[in-house]
Amino acid sequence: MMENAWLIPLFPLLSFLILLLFGKRLKEASAYVGILLTLASLVFSILVLFERFSEPTYSTKFDWLTIGDLHLTAGFEVNQLNALMLFIVSLVSFLVHTYSKGYMNGDERFPVFYAYLGLFTFAMLGLVISPNLLQTYIFWELVGVGSFLLIGFYYYKEEAKAAAKKAFIMTRIGDVGLFIGMILLFWETKSFEYSEIFAAVDAGAVSGTMITLTAILIFIGAVGKSGQFPLHTWLPDAMEGPTPVSALIHAATMVAAGVYLVAALFPLFAASKTALLTIAVIGAFTAIFAASIGLVQTDIKRVLAYSTVSQLGYMMLALGSAGYVAGVFHLMTHAFFKALLFLAAGSVIHAVHTQNIEEMGGLWKKLKLTGPLFLIGTLAISGVPGLSGFFSKDEILVAAWEGGHPILFFLALIAAFMTAFYMFRLFFLVFTGEARSEQKHVHESPNNMTYPMILLGVLAVIAGYVNTPWFGSFLGDWLVDGNPALGHGHVEGPIWIMIAATVVSLAGIYFAYLMYRKRSIARNTISGTGDTLHTILLNKYYVDEFYQLTVVAFTKGLSYFLRFIDVFLVEGLVKGVVGIVQGLGRTGSKMQTGQVQTYGAVAFFSLALLVVIFALTGGYLR
Amino acid sequence: MSSVPASAFLALALILFCIGLYGALTKRNTVIVLISIELMLNAVNINLVTFSKYGIAPSITGQVFALFAISVAAAEAAVGLAILISLYRTRKTVNIDEMDTMKN
Amino acid sequence: MNLQSTLSILVFSPLLGIIVLAFLPKQSEKLIKVVGFLATIPALLIALAAYLHFQWGKDLADFAVSKAWIQFRGMGGVPEPFFSVNYELALSGFQLVLVVLTAVVATLSALAAAKFVKKEWKGYFMLFLLLEIGMLGVFTAENLILFFIFFEITLIPTFFLIGKWGYFEKEKAAYSFLIYNGLGSAVLLIVIMILFAKTGTTNIEMLAQIMADPSAPLSGDLKLGLLISLLIAFGVKLPIFPLHSWMLKVHVQAPPSVVMIHSGILLKIGAYGLIRFGMGIFPEQFKTLSILIAILGVINLLYGAFLAFIQTDFKMVLAYSSISHMGIVLIGLAAMNEAGVQGAIFQVISHGLISALLFFLVGVLYERTDTSLIGNLGGIAKGMPIAAGFLLAGAMASLGLPGMSGFVSEFMAFLGLFKELPWIAAVGTIGIIMTAAYLLRAVLGMTYGKSHREFTGVLDLKGVELIPVGVLMLLIVVIGVFPSVLSSPLQTTLETIMLGIGG
């Protein structure tokens, strides 16, 4: 089966091509093309995953591009991480395909939506089976385009247009880091292949500075894709896309690509302490930074978006603290519960036609299925014991503590408190109390929307049990099997960390309960007098404005300066040359009096002059 | 005959040529200019004949060439005078200063 | 099989069309268009056949032809010709891909012309076919004199095509074109004459051999001077900053079908000349100048990108983007290694296809809406989804999206330069971001968002119009996904160049 793993990305590609060419004729039937072909991917992925449990890594490659003596290859590889990612991506993609049939129903560009979904799924699946950096980069960019197209799906909305553009350009800034890092690494190791790069790093063929430099450059790529500070601002804006897209791309798969990249290149990062520390610091900072913004946002999808940024920060923190298993584990559980949360949010939006949580309320009774499912997701992400998020978050906290970063550990703990708080704030505001605006025809979503949520709900509960301190760390042992560079399958942490995490998350929930359910604490307790803190948070620390004032303004200014040069200097130079030539011509033409005798005289005396010169120089002119 | 040296002929030709050149470049009357050009041509003819007699390899070629030049000069004078007459008819002048249509 | 006359037939096949057109009455519009289009087909078929010939493992040297042509005899009736210029055509892998590109773009441009040209079709197509002869000749000529003659043949028809069929300021653009390129070719002629006088041959291969010989009758300084002159001559064509201002006018004023040719092929003659003559004949001196060329390349790349970022006319955006993309060619060349040079060649082909595609779309857009100002358009994805889709895809190709040809070339050019001059290359990567910024700003400004005006009537691409965009897009994707279709013919050329460099 594993030798046929290359087929997995091709099914969605086929879906993309079919829908691109015949979408107009297929109309509503487009959905079935997309769903069936992603189902095929899912089936293959499950088979591959199960086969990988018992068999060794499979990889193959062929020549893609020849440059003189250099042979760049393409191919695919099924190792533990790849097999797991294949499963996650194709599962979420399949569920989102199914869900979208209901959610996007009636949209006039329905086939186009499925075509874009196919393109994205193809790119994402291609990304996770790439055996070399170059191929990773290729799919990395394609994933970006898929995301760009889907964010800008409502192309007639100015906000969607701006968000799509922003997403593409901001991630591209990161991509350039990856691009440079990849090329520098190539000239150091003479290969793009992961295995050969690791071998070269292992053998000490690459200098320490170079490892740190390339690792950090590659990490910049991950920062862009995974919405880490300071390139995070595109991710919340990306919520302009349709909600299923947010679930697929901006929660479960693409944004996790940065984490995947760091995980896939883990032996390289592990070789540089500086690089690891950078990752850990950025991750921890992003986790708390985004969580604090999430505290005050009023758009249901933006709260979830900031929570995604924050959770991705957690994963980075884990990887940066050498907690390979913790990072990947959280990636997996997060994919399930965050996709669930987004799909449930989509279901809410579908029912009430607004995204502003201030206008919702009391939906628990009206959305009998969505409500409990949303609660499951909320409990999972808050790290309540027993659900998947609890186990993975615990692993991360242990990794941060054991990795020797007590400050980062406490930052993560505070972020965990905030997470629990803002997620339950969201839950209480949306589902409890009374409706705060007029809501007509609120009804539960159709089956093809609820079934995917139910499946994700189940996974959000149970997915944690594949790797627990109580029942054994099956996932961890499997992930690091045969690869000592990745660290241990399970790190035993002190029991107080688990208790602290539980206490912190329950405290967050209780606090939210007091503030938004019982209303025994006023909502402006923390910000106190004056609303400065609240305003800063609401405006996301003014990062966007800061970029507008610095980077964008600088670019524009430089452009106008260069246009000044172009118009006045370059064009002026040309005009000057033209002027000189014209002036010479005018002078010459003034000398033409029309008097034959003058011409004759000039001709004669010139000839005489030439003869004199000829005589003086003695013959030939030398 | 042979007592007259070649340099005397050449000097004559030179004087003649210079008179012709002076006339052609300075006189305002076009008829005088044409006559001066004839003078220059004849100076050249004298040179041709002189070198055909006193040159390193004396031969008849120079004299034949002189005859050619005379006949061509005659034709040229005819054409030149014809142009001059037609100009006179349109411009009512033979003053060479006023013949500056080449300027524009 | 004797294939020696194939290249002559290839180059001069459009002549048949010119002759037929000469006998057609001026008014028979349809017939003229059909003949004009069909006359480009033989060259296309021969070019494709030559490509298949290569891919089937046969030797491209079969095509080489050399016949005595002009001979200057020495004084006193010495029997041996003193100087001789031969009629020499040949096809190396590099030339082959350029010939195929030319033939494809020319055919598609003829198709576009049938659509966009509104008057005097007869004159248009006769000049156009003459231009095609010139272009095909430039890429197959094997000696400098012949190259120069074909080079000049491309100038004159282009001048008239711009000056007569262009937009409002067409005359100005045409003169600008002629003066700059005339100066460029004058410099080129001087270089050719000095080489001819000093070595007695104009055959490119022989010149390269003579130059490689240390006992050559040229001093190092003279060679450097000649290379700098070549850099100026072809720098006008490419164009290299600050010799670019003519090209902006041409791109804005010339009719779309001519800009397809101009941006797609004619600019590439500059790159071809730099690689073939600059690098081929003066490899050592090229190495001396490589830092300068790298800096010029980065300047081109960034200068074009930053200026494209603030243009209000989409044509100007594309014009500056051409300058920017030619910077990548220079970057690749400056690397002086396999990756860089191959990247430069890829960029030549890739940009030829992409700019032909984009300028065709601009032509369509202008025809439908009477504007190419970004501010006047907006939301056209609603009325013309297919055109908008291709526009977006073209922009993606142009900004170097993997899976399309632009990425492969950009990647290789930077791969090459990072090995030799990593700092300059690192500065150049800013261009990658800027390219995305200005292209998305322009394309999204036109296709996404709210419509600023109501456009009525049938807007979208339809019928014949789909052929050029479809073919170009297909080629762009094929090269992007299977770059070996392009890289395999280039390997021998690369080996030769690398041998000259000694690296």
From TrEMBL, chain A:
An example of a Pfam family matching this protein is Proton_antipo_M
Highest taxon in the source lineage: Bacteria
Q: Please state every residue range assigned to the domain named NADH-Ubiquinone oxidoreductase (complex I) chain 5 N-terminal.
A: 64-114
GO BP terms: namely: ATP synthesis coupled electron transport; electron transport coupled proton transport
Instruction: Domain (NADH:quinone oxidoreductase/Mrp antiporter transmembrane): give its ranges.
Output: 130-419
Is the keyword Transmembrane helix in the record?
yes
Q: Which UniProt keywords apply?
A: Membrane, Transmembrane, Transmembrane helix
Instruction: Enumerate the transmembrane spans.
Output: 6-22, 29-50, 81-100, 112-131, 137-156, 168-187, 199-224, 245-269, 275-296, 303-325, 331-352, 373-392, 407-432, 453-475, 495-516, 599-621
Query: What GO terms fall under cellular component here?
Result: plasma membrane
InterPro entries per UniProt: NADHpl_OxRdtase_5_subgr, ND/Mrp_TM, NU5C-like, Proton_antipo_N
Q: Where is this gene product found?
A: Cell membrane; Membrane
Membrane topology per the entry is: Multi-pass membrane protein
Which family does the similarity line name? Belongs to the CPA3 antiporters (TC 2.A.63) subunit A family.
Name used for this protein in its record: NADH:ubiquinone oxidoreductase subunit L
From TrEMBL, chain B:
Any matching Pfam family? Oxidored_q2
The record's keywords, sorted A to Z, are: Cell membrane, Membrane, NAD, Oxidoreductase, Quinone, Translocase, Transmembrane, Transmembrane helix, Transport
Q: Which InterPro entries match?
A: NADH_UbQ_OxRdtase_chain4L/K (IPR001133), NUOK/Mnh_C1-like (IPR039428)
Q: Name one GO cellular component term.
A: plasma membrane
Q: What class of enzyme is it?
A: translocase
Where does this protein reside within or beyond the cell?
A: Cell membrane; Membrane
Report TM segments: 6-25, 32-52, 64-88
Could you name the domain of life of the organism this protein comes from?
Bacteria
GO MF terms, alphabetically ordered: NADH dehydrogenase (quinone) (non-electrogenic) activity; quinone binding
Gene Ontology biological process terms from the UniProt entry: ATP synthesis coupled electron transport
Q: How does it sit in the membrane?
A: Multi-pass membrane protein
Question: Per the record, what are the reactions this protein catalyses?
Answer: a quinone + NADH + 5 H(+)(in) = a quinol + NAD(+) + 4 H(+)(out)
Please give the function described in this protein's UniProt entry.
NDH-1 shuttles electrons from NADH, via FMN and iron-sulfur (Fe-S) centers, to quinones in the respiratory chain. The immediate electron acceptor for the enzyme in this species is believed to be a menaquinone. Couples the redox reaction to proton translocation (for every two electrons transferred, four hydrogen ions are translocated across the cytoplasmic membrane), and thus conserves the redox energy in a proton gradient.
NCBIfam families linked? PRK05715.1-2, PRK05715.1-3, PRK05715.1-4, PRK05715.1-5
Subunit text = NDH-1 is composed of 14 different subunits. Subunits NuoA, H, J, K, L, M, N constitute the membrane sector of the complex.
Family of the protein in this entry? Belongs to the complex I subunit 4L family.
Entry protein name = NADH-quinone oxidoreductase subunit K
Automatic annotation (TrEMBL), chain C:
Q: Which InterPro entries does the entry mention? A: NADH_Q_OxRdtase_chainM/4, NADH_UbQ_OxRdtase, ND/Mrp_TM
Q: Single GO molecular-function term?
A: ubiquinone binding
Q: Where are the transmembrane segments?
A: 6-24, 31-54, 89-114, 121-139, 145-163, 175-197, 224-246, 258-277, 289-310, 317-336, 348-366, 386-409, 421-444, 464-486
Please give the GO cellular component terms listed in this UniProt entry.
plasma membrane
Could you confirm whether the keyword Membrane appears in this record?
yes
Q: What is its EC number?
A: 1.6.99.5
One of the Pfam families matching this protein, by short name:
Proton_antipo_M
First-level EC class: oxidoreductase
- Where found, per UniProt? Cell membrane; Membrane
User: Which of UniProt's keywords are assigned here?
Assistant: Membrane, Oxidoreductase, Transmembrane, Transmembrane helix
Q: Where is the NADH:quinone oxidoreductase/Mrp antiporter transmembrane domain?
A: 141-434
> Is Acetylation set as a keyword in this record?
no
What is the recorded membrane topology of this protein? Multi-pass membrane protein
One GO term of the biological process aspect:
ATP synthesis coupled electron transport
- Family assignment? Belongs to the complex I subunit 4 family.
Q: What PANTHER family does the record tag this protein with?
A: NADH-UBIQUINONE OXIDOREDUCTASE CHAIN 4
Q: What is the protein's name according to its record?
A: NADH:ubiquinone oxidoreductase subunit M
